[in-house]
Amino acid sequence: MVITQETHDISTATGTMRTYLYRPDCEGQFATIIFYSEIFQQTAPIARAAAILAGHGFVVLVPEVFHELNTIGTVLAYDEAGKDKGNADKFAKPLEQHDSDTEALVDFARSLSFCSSQVGSMGVCLGGHLAYRAALNPDILGAFCLYPTDIHSNTLPSQKGNDSLSRTADIAAELVMVFGKQDPHVSSEGRKLLYAKLEATERNFSWIEVNAQHAFMRDEGERYDPAIALQMYLKAVAFFQRTLK
Question: How far is residue 134's CA from residue 128's CA, in Å, rounded to a whole number?
Fold first, then answer.
């Protein structure tokens, strides 16, 4: 399916947020996937991932997750300086601000004539956490979370008791949780803690562990695993085709 791309600057409770939109280049209404990036914002690998999803019949929104902390259009490099800046931003922005961003994205999607009312979330690394976090919003029907960081460790700033792990019982959406067994950012103990929380709260979730490192979806760098990445894209597309009918 041929796609088209647009750029929109949308209003949020904490300022203007640039959002990149990918959609099928044809008539019709399509379900929306909010695709949350890693700490580097919309890099080339993130843009390519969004294009793949859009080509399967979805509207895909890629927000600049740290819009309050950077000039519009900021993309951080995959180097030490970029990593340091992205991590600093990650620990500076409260989860409550990500919540209001999600609300703005849902409202924006539903204002578009080519979007249906169905909305899901997906993300990688920090974005995997934000996809999980987005599922606290009752308008999110499904979340596909790839190697989400900082859920188990409660290391992102939030109000007391409002961290994502503690709020797990409030998630009504169906979840898919995907982890690499060789991921140093989410240890085996961390994965077990999160799994136990999902089990204890009787959430509707699937759990996938693969033999891969952190960022195995990123099609740049030595950790990229094309075969596993392809499997995950196919699983994500099937998941959203089912949950976002």
Answer: 10
Q: Exactly one of 98, 101, 214, 225 is catalytic; which is it?
A: 214
| pTM for this entry | 0.98
In this prediction, residue 66 carries a pLDDT of 98
Q: Do 122 and 146 form a contact (C-beta atoms < 8 A)?
A: yes
Cα 145 to its chain centre, rounded Å, is 6
Is 125 known to be catalytic? yes
Q: How far apart are CA 154 and CA 24, in angstroms?
A: 37
Pick the closest to residue 177 from 150, 156, 198, 200 (CA basis).
198
129 is catalytic: no
* 62-87 pLDDT, tens digit each: 999 999 999 999 999 999 999 999 99
Per the annotation, the verdict on 183 as an active-site residue is yes
Q: Of residues 125, 129, 139, 152, which has the active-site annotation? A: 125
Say how many C-beta atoms besides its own lie within 10 A of residue 70's C-beta: 17
